[in-house]
Amino acid sequence: MGEVGMPVLPVLVFLAFCKAGMEKSEQLGYVRENYSRYLSDFSSLPNFAIYTLNFWFVLMAVVAILGGIFCGCVFVLSTIDMFKMLRGVQRKISTVNYKRHQAAVKSLLAQFAVTSLCLCPPFLFVLVIMSEFRYAQVTVQFLLVVFACHSSVNAIVLVATTPPYRNYVMRKPIRSQFVIKVSVGANSVF
């Protein structure tokens, strides 16, 4: 069942996301009813989407929450398993190799933690929409900024938690002193 669900589930979530939004014909009516002072602004927009709390949106939120719980469990169980395996090989490998393995596991954990920058904004986006928060637009824009920072933060964490990369970045620059002799006159050198 898992092999069949893997390629099908994203398509089903995409279709649920498409169904969660309003039809183009309903959007201006919704704005007219609920936000009449912004009707002219919305009318001039070439493309916009309105999502309200409906069956498809709730279904998508439930699937996302269940998926998040499943991924969280996999993360916790695999982390526990990695530390158990590391503890099991501690006496079988040299201290230097053990420290390398331990540093690799810590680096992986830090990179997994950065993944929360990818998972939390959509989850909070759903909460903002479901709660009808007053400053939803500003909050969603902030969440998009956090989401966009994921790759930069991941690169920084990778460099900071991987000793060879960290040592390369933190090394002292080689300072070479160049002496440039300039001749202004026939026999003068500065």
Structural description of this entry:
It comes from Caenorhabditis brenneri. This is G protein-coupled receptor. Keywords: Membrane, Transmembrane, Transmembrane helix. Pfam families: 7TM_GPCR_Sri. This protein is mostly helical. The protein has 2 domains: 1-52, no CATH class; 65-172. Helices cover 74% and strands 0% of the residues. The chain has 9 helices and no strands. It has helices spanning 2-20, 24-34, 39-44, 55-89, 95-114, 116-131, 136-148, 150-161, 163-170. Helix 1 (2-20) runs antiparallel to helix 4, helix 4 packs antiparallel against helix 5 (95-114) and helix 5 packs antiparallel against helix 8. The longest helix is centred in the middle third of the chain and has 35 residues, at 55-89. It is flat and about 85 Å long. The mean pLDDT is 81.
Figure out the total of helices.
9
For the termini, the CA-CA separation is 81 Å
Low-confidence stretches: none
Shape: flat
Order of helices and strands: HHHHHHHHH
What structural class is derived from the secondary structure elements? mainly alpha
Evaluate the radius of gyration.
Answer: 27 Å
| Average pLDDT level | 81
Q: Report the count of strand segments.
A: 0
Q: β content, as a range?
A: under 5%
The total number of structural domains is 2
Main sheet record:
none
Approximately how much helix is present in the residues?
over 70%
